[in-house]
Amino acid sequence: MKRRELLATSAAALGLAAVGTGARAQSPLKVGFVYIGPPGDFGYTYGHDQARLAAQEHFGSAVETSYVENVPEGPDAERIMTQMALSGADMIVATSFGYGPSLNAVAQRFPNIAFEHATGYLQEAPNVSLFSARFYEGRAVIGTIAGRMTTSNKIGYIASFPIPEVIRGINAAYIHAKKVNPDVELSVVWVFSWFDPAQEAAAAQALIEQGCDIIMQHTDSTAPLSVAQERGALTFGQASDMTQFAPDVHLTAIIDNWAPYYIERIQAKLDGTWAAENVWLGIGAGEVAFAPFNDRIPAEVQEEANALIEAIGSGAYHPFTGPLNKQDGSAWLAEGEIADDGTLLGMSFYVEGITGEIPG
Amino acid sequence: MLRLEKRPSPSKLWNYATPVVAVLLTMIAGGILFMALGKNPFEAIKLIFWDPLFSEQFASYSRPQLLIKAGPLILIAVGLSVGFRAGIWNIGAEGQYIIGALCAAAVALAFYPAESWLVFPLMIIAGAAGGWAWAMVPAILKTRFNTNEILVSLLMVYIAEKLLAAAATGFMRNPQGSGFPGSRNIHNYASASNQELIANTGMHWGVVAALIAVIFTYVLLQRHILGFHVQLAGQAPRAARFAGVAPARLVLMCLGLSGAFAGMAGMFEVAGPARLITIDFNAGYGFTAIIVAFLGRLHPVGIVLAGLLLALTYIGGELAQFMLNLPAAAIQVFQGMLLFFLLALDVLSNYRVRLSFPSRSSEVV
Predict the structure, then answer these.
(1) Suppose B34 and one of A111, B41, B171, B287 were both cysteines; which one would form an S-S bond, judging by CB atoms 3.0 to 4.6 Å apart?
(2) Per residue in A81-129, pLDDT tens?
């Protein structure tokens, strides 16, 4: 209790200092980013850092951004966020769901700071805002391309952790591959890591050995792409355009485009209109985008993919539209029924046709 | 030419002087590094070493954090140091730390939401027992089948990590966590919570346990026959055998002790600063503790100082990262330099540096 009070008073003192200097409007708005990985991963953290740089460029000297990379979830994250708060940050952005308990604890102590939490689910303070992207929309598109392009009818999927986000992606990819190619089979390998080049490469090797000629990944390193390039399997980039790591076999990539969101939220903070929200944006808002299609994709498949992107973006089509059954054969969505966000956010089951079990 | 001459006994003066010289050298070399990165070296060094302790803005928060960060490092390192002195290499403290946390969390979650004063002590016992049991695997394999405890204890870390991932995503998953991995927030469960004992000091039960462990180990090594056996086995294994030291018992004792300490560290962490079991719960404390043990010259008091110093570079390094936009790699290089200079300068306490001239010495030969 006492500690909380002391921190609250120091926070208040900082606030007073801000008022005291009067002409604070001149000093830049400080935004601190807490990254789960290194910006050089060319994947998830790279995407966030590109958006940070875009926001920095957009606002120029009105905003000052800083970041700490490779921050482990838990006490280290809590300490770093607190120190950022003490250093006078006005907004703190944290990029992994695992920061949730720490972020909420810090947010309660610093009520005047805006907290933006990517892919989280905990909102225990009024100054905690949640945001995420509907990456499953992108998975539906690359699933369609994979279904059309596979010749062995075996698609390999490198999965990180059995959490709803990842399971949703597997289901979306499978449903849409199956739609265009009823013979398609999906093999999932769980590597229990977001970023482990060695394990991801080993998983890609194993899947190719099993006869998969297309590799998808929900992990952040470029290692599986290098393996695919070497072995001649087709593949997709993760979170950013990874063409340079597999120029011949990189078909496209789902690109995380956080910049519009960051710019909007920082603007709101500058204007004093920032309020906590819980948003889940997709292709329509430009948050999920695609790398240029590889020439290897036949024109008619490119057309089909573009039409799907268009349909999802405009809201005409939802990737989880019935009829769909769960893996055990029980009914999930009736003809024409669309999955609600609640079910999607907590998704912990495979759809019918996927073999294997979700670990845990 | 520079020549090293072995001292008959380590120099007392250099023993105390090397850490200071090493820190100074790190500041100079690190300053050059930061300058090359286009940052003000004095500001960076001040942020790392001075601001966490004395700045008005940060110190009231970061000083207690020093204890929170150093606590588990010291507790684990002290346990490891006993084995290291005897030449028994437990490299798997990270795994024992994880299992200790898992066992303690299991106790807490089994009792949840019942409130009882019994829960916390039971968790400590479970944590220690879990770490001990995990360390017994390499210990028994070594004593029975003469396997290498370095390899076995290290490989057990990877098994523990898989168990941790399975627990966070499976059998310990919070039923109210919307399908996300991670257990219930144990820190928010009053009976199991490892709270600060005195507000705003960072002093929690884990830090207390670390201090008790330091005193216990000091007494063990200095005053107890077991401590004598440990030293003897490390310095003269054959003599130790003649003196009646049973090597198997020593292996079981050393691995068991370090495992129990590491398990306890995991328990205090999961119930305190870490708040809950997550996939990435282990933040490398078990491995960093090996560095702390050697940095502290395997001496309990040295380990306390080494743990605090390392914690300072972590906390100060984070400050430097976001205040100056320094990359994490630069901070890691800086920490690496500190370790390098500390260990490299050890040569001065064991050797005398002599200048000699090749021409003359060749005449002599």
Answers:
(1) B41
(2) 999 999 999 999 999 988 999 999 999 999 999 999 998 888 999 999 9
Contact B173 A360 (CB under 8 A): yes
Distances B55 to B51, B296, B319, B322 between C-alpha atoms, Å: 4, 27, 12, 16
pLDDT digits (tens, 9 = 90+) for A162-217: 888 999 999 999 999 999 999 999 999 999 888 889 999 999 999 999 999 999 99
Best mutation target, A52, A83, A90, A343, to test chain B (most B CBs within 10 A): A83
Question: Could you read off the pLDDT of B199-253 as tens digits, one per residue?
Answer: 878 889 999 999 999 999 999 998 888 888 888 888 888 888 888 888 899 999 9
Nearest to B61 among A7, A67, A101 (CB): A7
CB–CB contact A162 B169 (8 Å): yes
Rounded to the nearest 5°, which phi and psi values hold at A321?
-115, 135
pLDDT tens-digit map of A212-259: 999 999 998 999 999 999 999 999 999 999 999 999 999 999 999 999
How far, in Å, are A143, A185, A227, A234, B268 from residue A156 at the CA level? 11, 9, 13, 10, 41
Q: Please indicate whether, in this complex, the C-beta atoms of A83 and B273 are within 8 angstroms of each other.
A: no
Residue among B61, B278, B327 minimizing CB distance to A82: B61
List of domains in chain A = 2-133 (3.40.50.2300), 135-255+290-345 (3.40.50.2300)
- Do B182 and A78 lie within an 8 Å CB cutoff? no
Joined together, the tokens standing for residue A5 give: 């009070």
Q: How far apart are CA B34 and CA B30, in angstroms?
A: 6
CB contact under 8 A, A79 and B169: no
This model's pTM is above 0.90: no
- What distance in Å separates residue B280's CA from the closest CA in chain A? 7
Cβ(B254)–Cβ(B230) under 8 Å? yes
Hey, what are A175's tokens? 């449903």
Q: Which tokens belong to A314?
A: 């405009």
Query: What residues of A are in contact with residue B171 (Cβ under 8 Å)?
Result: 360
Mean pLDDT score, A59-67:
95
Yes or no: say if B288 and B73 are a contact pair by the CB < 8 Å rule.
yes
A307 contact B CB<8A: no
